[in-house]
């Protein structure tokens, strides 16, 4: 697994990188527009907050700054591809369980809107603990928004009842940040070539998937125990609205089959491409190893072979002529 856990990590220099290409800035603008639209849609979350709730919310935002350095989960990145822009290079994924637990609590008790703002703030302030990319901070905002949306979704049915389980919500919400990180890598590296972009697109799932899953499991266990011990702390949940999934049999078939088909095609392409890239890389490394072995085996004879060649070349009587000496030596060098 190779997952590392640190109780406390000393904050260092603030390191927040901006997009390195025009596509990155377009992506940043898209996130800002989507974020503004989401906050507008969830404006009721802020209207329900009284003065006390606002004071608690602002205080917690300040406390998130030191919380980013507590309970750190990290995992070494599996190989860095150095030909990509600096905003694509894979730094070791790092998550603060303490900070994300606080974001989860804000999402559960205040709603998806405050949870998204808290997640974005965690992403920005975590640049004091580990290097961050500006577009990647929206992955943490997606965590807070998705967790709150799953908790407060009011739809009826067994599937939606399952999504409302305290143990399930954080695990499902962990998929959102991974998709955002993957999309960021795709946009930033698409101009480098399709195969390389696909390799970077799969990197967040390969490098950070495990620690996001562990974060979701830890949050689910903690909030499940908390609500079991203190039932009054559990925020209210509704299930009084019919979903699009329940309107007709055709809607059920379409909603169930189309995402499965799309996901199966995407994962099949990613799997085959990843295997092809891994095989090509392995073959290139094996060929380099064979070339190095051949060169190493000939190194021992280089001194003697070189001495014999020099002796043979020096025996050429034409070297005594100044006019032809340079041409003869160049010819001998090409022969070797």
Shape estimate: elongated
- Supply the helix-strand structural class: mainly alpha
Helix content: 55-70%
Question: Regions with pLDDT < 50 over 5+ consecutive residues?
Answer: none
How far is the N terminus from the C terminus?
52 Å
Residues in β-strands, percent? 5-15%
Largest sheet: 3 strands, antiparallel
Indicate the mean pLDDT: 79
The total count of strands amounts to: 5
Task: Please sum up the structure shown.
This protein is mostly helical and 336 residues long. The chain is built from 13 helices and 5 strands.
Write up what this structure looks like.
It is a single chain. This protein has 336 residues and is mainly alpha-helical. Helix content is 67%, strand content 5%. The strands form 2 sheets. The chain has a 3-stranded antiparallel sheet. The model has no long low-confidence stretch (mean pLDDT 79).
Features:
336 residues; mainly alpha; 5 strands
Question: Secondary-structure map with pairings?
Answer:
Blueprint: E1 4-8, E2 16-17, H1 22-41, H2 43-47, H3 51-67, E3 70-74, E4 94-96, H4 97-110, H5 112-125, E5 132-133, H6 137-152, H7 158-163, H8 169-173, H9 175-189, H10 194-229, H11 249-299, H12 302-314, H13 322-335
Helix pairs in contact: 3-4, 3-5, 4-5, 4-6, 5-6, 6-9, 9-10, 10-11
